[in-house]
Structure formats: structure tokens, C-alpha cells
Amino acid sequence: MSEEQGRSGLGAVRPGETPSRAALLRAVGGVRGIVESILPGLVFLVTFAITRQTVLSVIAPVVVAVAFLVVRIVQRSNPQGAIAGVVGVAISAVWALFSGNANDSFLPGMIINAVFLVAIAITLAARWPLVGLFAGALTGDLASWRRDAAKRRTAATATWVWGGLFAVRLLAEVPLYLAQATEALAVVKIVLGVPLYAGALWITWLLLRAAWGTGSREQG
Q1: pLDDT class for 20, splitting at 50, 70, 90?
Q2: 187 neighbors 181 (Cβ within 8 angstroms)
Q3: Is the distance from CB of 32 to CB of 12 less than 8 angstroms?
Q4: Which residues of 1-30 are buried (b: 16+ CB within 10 A; e: fewer)?
């Protein structure tokens, strides 16, 4: 449900499973997945702070992401997350290279956050909360969960959590983008990336476990 979902996501969190730190770490891709998520942004920040050059600053993260992908291929480990990382970083780089402004490398991510926020608002307004759709798909309960009041309320609450995540990111990042505060924007993106995503995933997991894992059948 986020930029990180290509690497891991709600699919790694099974409703009813007992939450644990190890399981949460696995859901966000493990230590390796966290490093692969954070390091390209950190490389951008350091490179831009030192060189102030758009080309070097946006190409360096692409090189790092490609290196992660090559290592996974050589080790014959699952390359899906690394491929998603390369695609995401490459799109940001191309966007910035075309505009000539390193600040614009953050625009695709903000657009993605805005799209998810709109999608969440639509599903909530339609009373088909997005998290419920995900949970239903994962459990094979595509539509009947909506007849269970507890599940419906839980799905709506969890969906609001994700809506808050995307809203917080946009509220923090858009003013910095408009102010051309590239370094500050890079820091905020890292801080509001994996840590915030992991927190939302954890809360969602607890909520789904409470409703889907207890076999609630309250009708409403």
C-alpha cells in the first residue's frame, strides 16, 4: 500500500498470525530489505550535499539500486524487491534529469502518495475500505467480510491509518519541495519512509488479527 509495498507489504502479514518483532522485520523485507530501501536515498543526500550536481546526485542511487539487484541475481535470491527498487529510483532519476532539478526526483513519490490517498478516500466513501479489500483477497473472503460489522469497522480504521500515513508524507514533503529545500526533503523522505511504513503495517496487523483472527461474526 505504499512505495515500499513492492518490496514486502500487507501480503507478508497474515491475519490471525501472532505479531512479533521478527515477523514485522520479515514483513518489511528484513534487514537487507531495509538497507535496500534506505541506502539509495541516503546516497542521494550525501552526493547532493557534497557536489550540488543534479546528474551525479540522481545517478548514484540508480547505481546502488542496480548493484543490489545484481547481487540478488548472483545469489539467486528473490529479486522482486530489488527490481521494484531499481524501477522506482530510475523513474525518479529520469524525472530529475529531464527537468534539470534534483529536487524533482522526489515528485514521483509524492504523486504516488497522492494517488494512494485519493484511492483510500474513494474506498472509504464507498464503504469498501481499501485494507478490507486487501485482507479479503488474502483470506479468500472477497466480499462477505463487509457483512461482519467488526471486520468492516476494523478495515475502515486500518484504512484511515494508511490514509494518515500518506497525508503526513504529503504535508511534510510538499512544502519542502515547493521551497526547493532538497536536502531537508531527502532527510524527511528517509524518516517518513520505512519507519512510518513499518508502524502503519504493525498497527494494521494488530487490527486485522483482532477482527479476522478471532472469528468475529457480529452482523451489522
Answers
A1: low
A2: no
A3: no
A4: bbbbbbbbbbebbbbeeeeeeeebeebbbe
